[in-house]
Each structure stands twice: as structure tokens, then as C-alpha cells.
UniProtKB/TrEMBL annotation:
Stated name of the protein: Glutamine--fructose-6-phosphate aminotransferase [isomerizing]
Single Gene Ontology BP annotation: carbohydrate metabolic process
Subunit structure comment from the entry: Homodimer.
GO cellular component: cytoplasm
Part of the intact protein present: 243 to 604 of 604
Domain SIS stretches: 42-181, 212-352
Coiled-coil annotated spans: none
Amino acid sequence: DARKEGYDHYMLKEIHEQPHALERTLQGRLDAEAGTPTLDFPPGAFADAERVHLVGCGTSNYAAEYGATLLRRWGVEAQALLASEYTGAAPRVDGDTLVVAVTQSGETADTLSALRFAAERGARTLAVTNVVGSTAARECDDAMFIRAGPEIGVAASKTFSSQVASLVLLAATLVRDGEGAPGEEVRDTLRALADLPDQVATVLDGTTARSVAERYAGRESYFFIGRGLAYPVAMEGALKFKEISYEHAEGFPAGELKHGPLALVTEHTPVIAVFAGRHDEKTLNNVQEVQARGAPVIAVAGERADAVRRQADETLAVPDTHPNLAGLLANVQLQLVAYHVSKLLDRAIDKPRNLAKSVTVE
Ligand code: G6P
């Protein structure tokens, strides 16, 4: 089942599998009309969790960051922590802590170490993983499978989308079991989540990422910016870009640009700005700052973001959705830009040099 089916690369095939992967992720786990999660966890299952640590590496760390940001927005004390730093510098972890391991493979050594460290201290552990029977799934108290299907490309694509969708469902479940949740926003987000597979298909059908790639391939550096939930998406966009194109790319929180990275910005450094429909005016200010230094700006934004479209040099549009989910649609455009630039540069897209699908050493 792991053939390319007419696509030039597994990665492109897997990018195009996202609508179906997301359908599987959401299948039976959401009451779309009511806007409530229907995960297998009984009501109150997480009532004892006073704080949540989400640990992961690479792309999974950015999915974790997305989940943690959403949880904090919904009033849950949550942090995303790099698994490789967890054992050396973990914040308080004890029996009141839920530790969520975000790991596609379920075999990443750094993530397993973080899990074991947390379990020794009495934390409850939950694996969010793609692989049934993986070490993380077996060792954790609970497992939630993201159901993305096998991913052959070394650089993660569809698994990021399914991880984030899973974490949105998990976040809504944790809020259900906690106190003082902003109910209407959670319900609106979950109602919008049901439309996500179709909207990803719309992005894939209408994208102009290839022409953007043709215009900007071969520049000196690429900078990705975003704030709020668009920040982990910008980070993931930069990671994908450097992994498969071998070009220098960095992600920054949009507001931090002026505190240092701006010194690197010139007419040779395209800036890719991610807009999720919240804090957009502030990010637009940052766009103007880089344009004043001559940098071309490629915005990824919702269809109705007229001010963004007027200001940016190029816009990759995504269907309008809830601001809590817009980053997931933007990420698909970033995947495609990275893919097409890498293809123009004739890179080994499915097996980038020096990288492995699953890293089993610390
Ligand atoms: C490797 C892969 C990355 C992946 C990371 C975490 O570095 O190349 O694409 O994000 O491991 O993998 P995991 O299986 O734990 O999600």
C-alpha cells in the first residue's frame, strides 16, 4: 500500500492524502452539530490533571506547541516542552500532571525518555501517536491514535495535521473535565473542525504554491513568522523548508523580529507570514517592517483577509475557518511551497540527507 500512485514523491502523495487522513482522525470522535468531543475517555477522566505537559521532537514538538497554546487559551495550564530537554530541565511533574507524548512513530528515544522520567514521578501519561503497538502506545497509561495512515516521507506532513486535529479534540475533552471553560468557543472550534477535511481539499485544488516556489527558489534565506497559533505553524513551515530544500530557513514569533532577526532581513530574504485571523493587524505591522528593508512578503491568509492581501507581495489564500484552526490550512500551503522549491532544486525530497524517519538514539 505504500506506492506513489502517480505522484512524483511519497511526500506529495501524503500531502494530498490529508483530507482522508483527517477524516479518519475525526471519525466517531466528534459530534459536529453539538460541537462536542466524543473521544473514548469517560466524563471526568482527566478531572485530576492540574497541569499538562506536551512533549515531542521536531514536527511533533510544533504540533505539541499548537495544542498547548490552544489549551492555555481555553484556561488549562499547559506547556509544550522539547522531549530532549525534559529530563534535564522539566518543570514540576507529579501525580497531578498529565504528560502527553506527541510522537508520530511512538519510537523517538528522546520522547520515550521524557515519558519514563514523567512516569517515575507519578505523572499520568498519554501517547498521541500514529503507530498502534509502538513503544509509546504500550508504555503510556492511555493512547490516542491519530489514524493518519503510513507516512513514508521522512519529513512529516499528514501526521502533523492529524496530530493537531487530535490535540484539538483532546483539548476540548480536557476542558470538559476542567473548570471555567469558554464553552461557546470550544463548540465553535469543534463545529469548524468537522469541515476541515473538505477545506484542506479546497486548498490542495486551488493552491498557487508552485508559482510562488518558481518565483522565489534559490534565495539567500527564508524567514517564517506568525503569532499566537500561527507561530508553531510558522516554525513547522521553516522546519519543513530546511529539511527538504537544504536552504536556510528560520521561523520566528512575528513580534520577536524587531528584537534581533530583523538584522538579517534584506531584499534577498523572502518572509513568509502566516495569518490565522487573530492578531493579524500586529503581524501586518511586522510585514511592513520587513518590506521597508526590501524583503518580499508571501502571506498565507484567509480568503477574506483583504488588508493582508493588499499589503503582501503574494498571498496564498485558504478558506475561512475558525481562527483556532486556520493554521492547519495555512500549513498545507507551507508544505507545498517547501515541496515545490525542493523539487526545483532537485533535492532528495523523500529521504533528505542526514535525516531519519524515526530517531532511536538520544
Ligand atoms: C525525526 C523525523 C521528524 C520527526 C521527529 C519526531 O527527526 O525526521 O520528521 O518530526 O523525528 O518523530 P516522532 O515519530 O516522534 O513524531
